[in-house]
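Hello support,

Our group uses your service weekly, and this is the first time we've seen a run hang past the timeout. The protein is Transcription initiation factor IIA gamma chain. I'm not sure whether the cause is the sequence or the server load. Input pasted verbatim:
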Amino acid sequence: MAYQLYRNTTLGNSLQESLDELIQSQQITPQLALQVLLQFDKAINSALAQRVRNRVNFRILAPILQNE
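Update from on-call engineer: The timeout came from a worker crash unrelated to the input. Re-ran successfully.
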């Protein structure tokens, strides 16, 4: 799922670590932790889609190889 890309950010990693601690202390279930992560995925993608206005386009200019 493309949404999961942002789980490797500082915020995403911190969320996962916190959820893991809550699971280990039996304060939440693994199923609830998964629901939280899925909601995080949706929220971060929605926020970025609505608030980020700048887009970057890359163009690669490759030299043309000539036969000698």
